[in-house]
Amino acid sequence: MDWLNTIIRTFFDFGAMAEVLPQLLAVGLLNTLIISVAATVIGVVLGMVVAVMGISPSRWLRIPARIYTDLFRGLPAILTILLIGQGFARLSQSIFGPSPYPLGIIALSLIASAYIGEIFRAGIQSVDKGQGEACRALGMSYGKSMALVVIPQGIRRVLPALVNQFIAIVKDSSLVYFLGLLVSERELFRVGQDAAVLSGNLSPLVMAGIFYLIITVPLTHLVNYFDTRFRTGKRRPSAPTSGLNEVKELDAASPLTTGSNT
Predict the structure, then answer these.
(1) Which UniProt keywords apply (predicted)?
(2) 78, 207 in Cβ contact below 8 A?
(3) Is the pLDDT reported for residue 1 higher than 80?
(4) What does the domain layout of the chain look like in residue ranges?
(5) Which CATH architecture is the domain 2-261 placed in?
(6) For residue range 153-164, what is the model confidence (pLDDT) as tens digits?
(7) Among 42, 61, 45, which Cα is nearest to 53's?
(8) Is the pTM value of this prediction over 0.85?
């Protein structure tokens, strides 16, 4: 049973876990959520712009959107983070100070916007074309019909995919540590890694992994809920009398009934 004791000491040292727990809560969890939420909000805004450009009738908008999407989806996330974090370090210092925190958020936002743009584009293009044609028949412009009718329907259809993308951003936020964050800016992975180095075992990293699971597992089930409600089109069954009411209304409005009343 020596192997079992070795595994417990290496991965499940509860003393080391308890020691790192306050830092994970006060520093790691807070910064992970800040990075993830900020990158998601910026990514959604940029992603919507990319999606609208990608479905535009103008080639001058479609081609740049396609290049942008292929670029940031094709590069590994860590490479993008390092290129932006190190390439714009001097510019960032003059604007944000010595902290690489904002550059990490910007890099994750650019990556997320490429994926979110494709999600929005697929959702918008899944809306029946008759919706837009009906809007134009009513005298609405292309932009107004997209903003008021087509895009809202498309967003509703891709909510599960957006939640999945947020989960991916939460996990990718661990890569920001490569930029050398300040002590007060460490996210979950960096806090767990530093504590693992000091304690000599991997229990703090396991504890950090538990925090990631606490965030991502409920969101995964939320995706399933959204998928059931929106994507599969399940609705509450209508009351049995609703069909009779519709028949009565149609019967009352029929020409034969109208003629008999007169």
Answers:
(1) Amino-acid transport, Cell membrane, Membrane, Transmembrane, Transmembrane helix, Transport
(2) no
(3) no
(4) 2-261
(5) Orthogonal Bundle (1.10)
(6) 777 788 888 888
(7) 61
(8) no
